[in-house]
Amino acid sequence: MQTYFRAALAVYLLSALPAAAQGIDETINQMFADYTGWYVSLIFAPLPGTNFSWIAMWLVVAALIFTFYFGFIQFKGFVHSIKLVKGDYSDPNDAGEVSHFQALATALSGTVGLGNIAGVAVAVGIGGPGATFWMVVAGLFGMATKFTECTLGVKYRNELPDGRVSGGPMYYMVKGFQERGLPGGAFMAILFSVFTILGALGGGNMFQANQAHAQISNVFGDFPGWITGVVLAVVTFAVIVGGIKSIARVTEKVVPFMGIFYVLVSLVILIMNADQILWAFGQIFQGAFTGLGVAGGFTGALIQGFRRAAFSNEAGIGSAAIAHSAVRTKEPVSEGYVALLEPFIDTVVICTMTALVIVITGVLNQDPETGLYIWNAELGRIQTDGAVSGVALTSAAYARALPWFPVLLMIAVVLFAFSTMISWSYYGLKAWTYLFGEGKTKENIFKVIFCLFIVIGASANLGPVIDFSDAMLFTMAIVNIIALYLLMPIVKVELHSYVRRLKSGEIKKYV
Amino acid sequence: MTGKIVVGYDGSAAGRRALDFALARAKAQGASVLIAHVLEWSPYSFLTPEELEERHVRRKEEMARAETAVMKPVLEKLGESGVPIETVIKYGHIAEKLSEIANEAGAMQLVVGRDGNGSLAARVFGSVAGTLVQITTVPTTIVP
Question: What domain range is B113 assigned to?
């Protein structure tokens, strides 16, 4: 009798599970939106009298200032950057230390992620094809920002007594400000660390988990997000707390190939639609200045493009300065040169591929008569096939050309998400230990919190998550860019000295 | 005659055979021996952020381990041989690095061993001896 009772109870519980699961998702979503909404509105508040958010302006103005201040370093130094990555200037006796290539590859695996796949789809879905143009522009100028922050990251990194290397904005804020006799460095470093922890939990975690779940349920059918969240959290836990390095290592090795494969597949689709390429570029240029029916018109496209570029390549956010600082070099400027390739690869190459495929495959619905895009006011974005957004839109676009692609995209998305999470758990941890000091228990507390947020991120809706993620990353940029402005004269001195010694042959070329 | 023979040594039995061969030749010719140990390393590999942070420390540990576990035992045994011996530990692509070391030392000969099995693995990944045959610029002896 008792066994029957148990069996009946089990059946009852199982049947109730999906409903309960949906309930959990909704509760998490509501709580999340309630608690973060006010802050998001503050960060994305428009400049008075316009509909242009002040934060996008903040990043773009910074990128422009650095571009002019360093004399268009991203164009003049591009060839030199590639030579550095190839190892032409690396001392052979330093073999076995972190090379320029390795620092760049690791930093890239933190930034190449869902921003390039899902983020671009969001931008093009809301801002139209024109958003692509502004994204590329922001990417090109962002290269100068990256140059500035990574040079400083290497110059003021900390070499710990046990030989480990630790760097990032916290360190250049403290040491750089001291060197220039400026007050407030320590305070800014604390502020930056707090925002880095939140950014790690937002863009570096919840957004990734959210879109990984979106693509998995896109392929296998809908199921509650917390399930994906728990699985991802367990694997991440195994890596960052359990120290199962093999998983991280495998991801780290597979991700670059996934990235290359993604670009190749995009190129194949573009070639398949070769007759449409000129038309697509036409849409992008036209849309960039008119909006082509997008709400907000020209500025709508502009804001979306700038927002996505910043979110994707993280120029000015400060995260790259942490990743690049372990490189073996005597010249901080050399790592700045290498780092400026990051926004180029991330935004100008990979993001543009996604955008071109979305535009060229025609998943964005157009009015056949006017050629304008059909605006769905209810969803606040352009009408698409299946009314999808984010990663599902990218998936739909690629599937139009290659029907098997969604499954592959799912694998890529999960891996990209995972590698970005691993990178950001590290950035977050660096900020955490900067605030609270090093120690096993302290570090584990952060890592457990990080894993919990994966579950929240996978459960919540895209809207609140993406807004919160953006808001946190941009808050890091506020603090970081103020520091960059104050410290850029130091970078200039370094740059001049470097260029002079490069010309005189004092900086040796080994190959 | 004061030539130098460079020998690639990794602590294995095959490496040991190569070393013995080199020592015998050096003794007969009055030459010296440079024992080279190369740690496989590519500057184009992918590392996690944590590995980047620890790389400098790990490198020191790896060098120290190579010194104590590979070089020291063999040097102790060779103490009586009467042949002048030097050692060098480097990072890099093993075959390329050995060829480079031999070149820089102005060696009259490079000697390496081979394990002679795992032909499938060698076909897929390449073998040190096989690669050296293709790239070496110094007369090279492969000791079976």
Answer: 4-143
CA of A100: which chain B residue's CA is closest? Answer: B43
Looking at the DSSP bridge assignments, the partners of residue A364 are A384
Q: Look up the ipTM and state it.
A: 0.85
Beta strands in A359-419 (DSSP E): 375-376, 381-382
Number of compact structural domains in chain B: 1
Q: How far apart are CA A163 and CA A152, in angstroms?
A: 20
Contact B56 A102 (CB under 8 A): no
Domains of chain A listed by start with CATH number = 22-504 (1.20.1740.10)
Distance (Å, whole) CA A31 – CA A25:
10
Q: pLDDT tens-digit profile of A342-390?
A: 999 999 999 999 999 999 988 888 888 777 888 887 777 888 877 788 8
The DSSP result for A354-378, as a single string, is HHHHHHHTT-B-B-TTT-PBPEETT
Touching B: A residues 41-100, CB under 8 Å: 87, 90, 92, 95-100
Q: Which residue is listed with tokens 């605030």?
A: A435
Confirm or reject contact between A423 and chain B (CB < 8 A). Answer: yes
Contact state of B56 with A105 under an 8 Å Cβ cutoff: no
Residue range A152-163: mean pLDDT, rounded = 90
Report CB contact under 8 Å: B53, A163: no
Chain segment A92-116, per-residue pLDDT in tens: 888 889 999 999 988 888 888 778 8
Is residue A1 predicted with pLDDT exceeding 50?
no
- B52 vs A contacts (CB less than 8 Å): 98, 102-103, 106, 165, 323, 326-327
Q: pLDDT for B35-46, tens place per residue?
A: 999 998 888 888
Partner-chain residue, chosen from B44, B46, B57, that has the shortest CB–CB distance to A162: B57
Task: Give the CATH number of the domain where residue B38 resides.
Answer: 3.40.50.620
| Residue in chain A lying closest to B53 (CA) | A165
